[in-house]
Specification:
156 residues, mainly alpha, 5 helices, 69% helix
Length: 156
């Protein structure tokens, strides 16, 4: 695959990504709160059950032409629900630990960035190959430093 050229994202996409991160933090906090009052299994069921209900409502509101199955998606693409369930289960355990919400989110961000750089580098999942550069290494280093400060530097 050819090397990908980087393009500057629009302000809308930057805001959407930022909002997604904020919603992820809120989702993990909500799931952890349910786990603290029940258990991880119920929390995961509640999160995914309410997500399924919301998806069904959105699908019902779409015109029939937009609901049709087009097929052709690779098999791995359907594993997103499983990964979401594992994320909820691990996240609720981590948040209800000494890591708390900020430590869990910081380490989760580090994992996302490192995995994303590997996926870019090797072209996993049909992504165009992109060789990480010095800026990418700086980003990983700064996030790692932030994780260390959050996890080990903030506790009294």
């Amino acid at each position: 695959m050819p090397e990908a050229r980087l393009q500057k994202p629009s302000p809308f996409l930057l805001l959407a990504a930022f909002g997604s991160g904020a919603l992820l933090s809120l989702m993990i906090l909500c799931n952890a709160t349910v786990t603290a009052h029940t258990n991880g299994h119920f929390s995961s069921l509640a999160a995914h059950g309410s997500g399924m209900l919301a998806a069904l409502i959105v699908l019902a509101a779409l015109p029939a032409a937009r609901r049709s199955w087009r097929g052709g998606a690779p098999l791995w693409a359907f594993s997103g629900g499983l990964m979401g369930a594992v994320t909820v289960a691990l996240g609720t355990v981590a948040v209800n630990s000494p890591l708390a919400l900020s430590g869990m989110i910081a380490l989760g961000l580090l994992g996302q960035v490192v995995y994303s750089l590997l996926a870019d580098r090797f072209g996993w999942f049909g992504l165009p190959k992109r060789r990480p550069d010095g800026r990418d290494a700086l980003v990983v280093g700064l996030i790692l430093a932030g994780c260390l400060l959050i996890v080990w530097g903030g506790a009294a």
